[in-house]
Amino acid sequence: MSTDNAGFEASYGPWAVIAGGAQGIGEAYTRYIAARGVNVMVLDISADALAAISASVREEFGVQCLPVEVDLAGDDMLEVIRAAVGKREVGLLVYNAGLADVGPFYKADSGLDFELKKIAVNVTGPLKLIYHFGKAMLARRRGGIVLMSSGAGLTGSPYYAHYSATKAYDIALGEALWGEFAPYNVDVLAVAAGMTLSTAAAGFEHIEDRSQFQTTTELVDEAMAALGQQPLLIAGKNHRANADNMLQIPKKDLIRYMAEHAINNFLGGEAPPQVIDGD
Ligand SMILES: NC(=O)c1ccc[n+]([C@@H]2O[C@H](COP(=O)([O-])OP(=O)(O)OC[C@H]3O[C@@H](n4cnc5c(N)ncnc54)[C@H](OP(=O)(O)O)[C@@H]3O)[C@@H](O)[C@H]2O)c1
């Protein structure tokens, strides 16, 4: 990736689309890109957050910011986004939004509909937007695509089972398209984030070892430096070291390790039972 603003704009301008770009990690992407002189189109579900980021980005960075209120899980999301984009040339797509939860596969407070919504946001959403925006990038022979995934996508992760499966999809799609799009000068990067202090990550307060976390800015700085350099970034020094170790151990032990990570950090120290009808 070019480090100077002119180079960044030439590679990825004049417009970037950031899906789930109004808060948390997404906001950090929006601000990083706007700071490099590229206009930002921010897709998000939260009207208030969109209004806030649009005002601050325009004032701070002097670029155009187009807020688009859209539910990325909606069947009509692509039509809404295409209408909002109009004839603007999109040189960078960041698909950041993700739907996550932790608990047993069969939960008390959500059912199959929620799991299908996870597919809509984490799988169908990136597929639709890459399919749409990627084609024009290939035709122009320039552009970039960043796909947010998770450490949970690197292996099957108990108590994040379906989230982990959707995030494995994001890694596989990102890595494969890195290979296919490179001859067209379009950079693709999948980012496996570790625990990151985003707005959606409220609930991390009880974890004492802060060295496990990245800030949103640290994560985005790393990701944007990796775009154009590699197909997959495992973000964060500690997370990367853990992931290296994880790949050395037998699969059964690795899956148990992932289960313990969820149980100890987010499930109060005890494996939750499956909530089965009739129990
Ligand atoms: N935070 C972590 O520790 C962590 C770890 C590993 C991977 N990740 C991945 O990193 C990405 C961003 O993570 P995050 O959880 O920290 O979120 P975030 O960046 O704080 O938030 C993303 C933004 O997307 C919006 N959004 C969510 N669902 C949407 C939908 N259906 N339509 C439109 N906008 C929607 C959110 O709005 P609302 O808040 O109003 O819903 C929020 O403004 C996700 O793909 C996640 O899987 C995060």
Helix content: 40-55%
The counted number of beta strands is: 9
Q: Give the CATH class.
A: Alpha Beta
Bound molecules: NADP nicotinamide-adenine-dinucleotide phosphate
Q: Can you give a write-up of this model?
A:
With 279 residues, the chain is an alpha/beta fold. The protein has one domain (5-266): NAD(P)-binding Rossmann-like Domain (Rossmann fold, 3-Layer(aba) Sandwich), CATH 3.40.50.720. Helices cover 48% and strands 16% of the residues. It is built from 9 helices and 9 strands. A 7-stranded parallel sheet has the order 3-2-1-4-5-6-9, with helices on both faces. Strands 7-8 form a two-stranded parallel sheet. It starts with a helix and ends in a 13-residue tail after the last helix. The mean pLDDT is 94. The protein binds NADP nicotinamide-adenine-dinucleotide phosphate (NAP).
Keywords summarizing the entry:
single chain; 279 residues; alpha/beta; Rossmann fold; seven-stranded parallel beta sheet; two-stranded parallel sheet; 9 helices; binds NADP nicotinamide-adenine-dinucleotide phosphate
